[in-house]
Amino acid sequence: MIFNLAAASSRRFNLLQAGTRRLDPALYQDKKLYSLAKEDEERFRDHLGALICGAVDHREIIRHKMPKGAAVYSGPGMLEDDLEVLLTLFPHVYLAVPQDDALGSGSKTGEWRPEPNLLLELARTGRVTPVFRAPLHRYESRTVLSLLEDPELRVILPRQLDGLTVLTMARQFPFWRQFREDPQSAAQVYQAVHSVAGGASAVPGADEKLAKHFFRVLADTVETHIMVAERGEQWFMDQGYATAGNLTAGGMIHSLLEFYHDHKQREIRDTIIIEAHVYSAEMVLARALGAVYAPTAVLNEPIFNMVAHLQAGPQCVVFPPGVNKLGTILKGLCIMRPRHVPLREFLEVISSSEAERLRQIVTEIINRTGETRNNCRLNWRSSTKRLPGGANHLSTGCKNRWISWVWASTWLSCLQASLSQG
């Protein structure tokens, strides 16, 4: 990459055109739904520059108040039993709404699809916030409209989710604003990093080939963040929250894996890259929502753990055990919803305060039995820390800190172990 100072200062993009594919009227069978989608799109576009600079409050993105108390987000693919477990332990759950069968995921993949009336009832309890991750035309109109007709309900629209994600990353990477407002500083950082990379072979006690690769990765990372300063609007308009997979741990792992050129292991490497991108994006989404990330399914736990520790540091257990394990503990405590009792009625018994109390009990059980990862004590709130503006940042000091050589060696060791397991 050759740093283009003129491009950094101009940034002339037609942002509305970047979102045109999402706003094609032919995709919307309901005019009211189209109007809602257009308003959501235009609001995101109008605030995007300020979001990248971290210069707005989260209330500019969502108009309702963030829920009080502990919250949890588990991404797509949640089953009814999973939701029951999470609502038993957390006062608030962010629920990714399944897309319409004909256009996206749904019953074809075994995903639980709550009826619109049930989703509406859960939202009215104040303990469930529906999250629309995809453009609104990919959902049943009845589901979307029923939730948005009541202004008191908490609902996260697609571009609101994108906006919260961009703001969260902007708080994590405050140099975005510096690069945008002072392109010359970006050019100086670019030149300095490449100068250091050129002397990688001089690192004492380091494998020369590995050292060169690491500094090349560092240079690539810097270039990526300079690109955010140059043309971040276009990228975020096109990709939305998915960019988080590239800009955080997922992108770093992807670059580090380029060190391995063994074609026999290419399929394993590609699998690790895809999983790392997905986990990274989902963890940033959870942090943007001020929630703990508790996935319903983890395909490759070593990769999941590595991404988690890259996000929050090696000494922290940043995520609770899987939902299945939590469900097993609750069954052992005989805390289960009888099958004949509707989920809505179950929530009348397991209130927010009761969920807090039960989570403390389960946390103590997990810590005593040594079930947490790496035999560390579990802290359900250790993954996020709320900022005064409502956004969140990593609580272990990875903000404003460049990666050390020791860290790089650790990551590469983890990656090598994962590859050798294949």
Write structural notes for this entry.
The strands form 2 sheets. The chain has a 4-stranded parallel beta sheet with strand order 3-2-1-4, sandwiched between helices. The protein has a two-stranded antiparallel sheet with strand order 5-6. The longest helix is centred in the middle third of the chain and has 32 residues, at 208-239. It has 422 residues and is mainly alpha-helical. Residues 1-18, 103-108, 371-376 and 381-416 have low confidence and may be disordered. It is 54% helix and 4% strand. It contains 18 helices and 6 strands. Helix 7 crosses helix 13 (266-288), helix 8 packs across helix 10 and helix 9 (183-198) runs antiparallel to helix 10.
Radius of gyration: 22 Å
Question: How many beta-strand segments?
Answer: 6
* Number of helical regions: 18
**Residues in helix, %:** 40-55%
Major β-sheet annotation: 4 strands, parallel
| Coarse shape | globular
Average pLDDT = 78
In order across it, which strands form the biggest sheet?
3-2-1-4
Q: Beta fraction of the residues?
A: under 5%
> What are the segments in which pLDDT stays under 50 over at least 5 consecutive residues?
1-18, 103-108, 371-376, 381-416
Write the element-wise H/E pattern from the N-terminal end onward: HHHEHEHEHHHHHHHHEHHHHEEH
Distance between the termini: 34 Å
Based on secondary structure, the structural category is mainly alpha
